[in-house]
Amino acid sequence: PSHFRGYKVVDLRQLFRLSRDPLPGQTGAVPNTIDKTFTSLQWAAMAMRQRDPAQKADVICRLDSDTLFLPQNLRRIMACRNFSASEPWAIGHENYAHKHQQPGRVFLNGGTGICLSRGALDKFLEKLEGGEFKRSTSYGDWNAGACVSAPGHWDDVVLGSCLASLGIPISRWGTDCQGRALFWPDRLHYALPGSEQVRPRRLPPKGSFFQPPEVKARDNSESHSSRERDEQRKKQNGKLKKQNEGKQKDQHEGSIDSNSQYLGTSRPVAQRQADVANYQFWLYRSWQHIACDPEIWLADFAVGFHPYRNRTE
């Protein structure tokens, strides 16, 4: 269509060279989401350049087709925190899933929306026209850690690497002053009081604030000897063997009941999803909010939501 809900639809293929869209139901096809994100930002920057200063937008946001986005709340946080649109910055939900794996960068979660200031968009176009962006036909180059337009779906990860290489900082105001999220990437009940609510652990392990949910948490108590821990594991594993007889592997594969200190594949699928969401949400973020304990971890005037899915799907 030429218009959608009163807004003009831009056909990027008429302006840029884009890789072909996968056909519906086509197996083995590589998405072209990275290409689309880069060219859409390029088009927005070029369009803004042609406008009079008074008509230029302060912020440009990249959204998924299923993002629930409240622009009036974005305007509110910008006014409250005195944002300058002429300064380069990006705002959204900080995702640490690739902090210590390729490409080694924090990125903004695409599902909740990624917003760039006018200054950031100007810098994006300046560097692109200066030849600092690369094109690749290799599917694996999405994790190169640079501004690379490559085949693939991980456009938010690539954009995060690109922003870092361009020196465009991520704003710390993706949360409110209580640490509650303005951009929410998970199912809504994870933000609300209940057994699956994401929240910082009150008694973190000695070595770090968290242990990955796939890994058995170590017993750091100095009163337990290694022999006592071995005996405890044997008893627990024996108990598990009896419990799992006749049950399907994909329901309870591995160890202990829900009261155990272990967080691995022993727990039901739904609970493991909550564990992973909690872990990824608080990884490297816990130290900022460990003294805070609000009842709800969702801001009163949240900006972006992507609640139908979570990081394990």
The share of residues in helices is 25-40%
Weakly predicted, low-confidence segments? 204-210, 215-227, 243-265
The biggest beta sheet is recorded as:
3 strands, antiparallel
Mean pLDDT: 78
**Large-scale geometry:** globular
Output the radius of gyration: 23 Å
In total, how many beta strands? 12
Q: Characterize the quaternary organization of these chains.
A: single chain
Strand order of the largest sheet: 3-8-5
Helix/strand/pairing class, anyone?
Answer: alpha+beta
N- to C-terminal distance: 31 Å
Strand content: 5-15%
Number of helices: 7
**SSE arrangement, N to C:** EEHEEHEEEEHEEHEHHHE
Summarize this structure briefly:
By secondary structure, this protein is an alpha+beta fold. The protein is built from seven helices and twelve strands. It is globular, with a radius of gyration of 23 Å.
Task: Characterise the protein shown here.
- A hairpin with a 2-residue loop joins β1 (3-4) and β2 (7-8).
- The protein is built from 7 helices and 12 strands.
- It has helices at residues 33-49, 71-80, 118-129, 155-166, 226-243, 269-282, 286-289, and strands spanning 3-4, 7-8, 59-62, 68-69, 90-91, 94-95, 107-108, 114-117, 134-135, 148-149, 183-184, 304-305.
- α1 packs across α3 and α1 (33-49) crosses α4.
